[in-house]
């Protein structure tokens, strides 16, 4: 079986969600204006400073001790606030895409740089950005242009036999 590398497939972006120390600075040096999102935690596929040394133009990581932390904490609790505002029964792919666009919109052209491609998870405006200004915007964010069924089934009691009793709210 042939092992592929960044050298053999000539790529300019790497998104990793796999294992530590998979990518080297030498591999990154083969990229043209490379973008590296090394997400494995706590040790990414390549450390951000090593990726920069390899010539990466933009580096994102799951780690909070480097710029451009990319972490699912960015959308919590905001996406849930938006979903609850429209009484959504599920989080859809459309919601996730709109959430990503809402996060990206928080970074102005003046702020945008290789070390600032998205706001900090600690930025207080992040969670509320999914709600926008009132319910109509939240409905668009959630991709729901229709009224949602107002009752949901939630477990109120579970027994050891695996029985699940639900109550309509």
Structural class given helices, strands, pairing? alpha/beta
User: Order of strands side by side in the largest beta sheet?
Assistant: 1-2-3
Helical element count?
Answer: 7
- Number of strand elements: 5
Q: What helical percentage do the residues reach?
A: 25-40%
Shape: elongated
> What gyration radius follows from the Cα positions, in whole Å?
21 Å
SSE pattern, N- to C-terminal: HEHEHEHHHHEE
Strand proportion, as a percent range, falls in 5-15%
The overall pLDDT average reads: 76
> How is the main sheet built?
3 strands, parallel
Poorly predicted runs are 133-169
What separation lies between the terminal Cα atoms?
A: 55 Å
Task: Kindly describe this structure.
The chain is α/β, with parallel strands linked by helices and 169 residues long. 27% of the residues lie in helices and 14% in strands. A three-stranded parallel beta sheet has the order 1-2-3. The chain has a two-stranded antiparallel sheet with strand order 4-5. Strand 4 and strand 5 (164-168) form a beta hairpin. The radius of gyration is 21 Å and the shape is elongated.
Question: Key features?
Answer:
three-stranded parallel beta sheet, elongated, 7 helices, 5 strands, two-stranded antiparallel sheet, about 170 residues, single chain, disordered C terminus, alpha/beta, about 25% helix
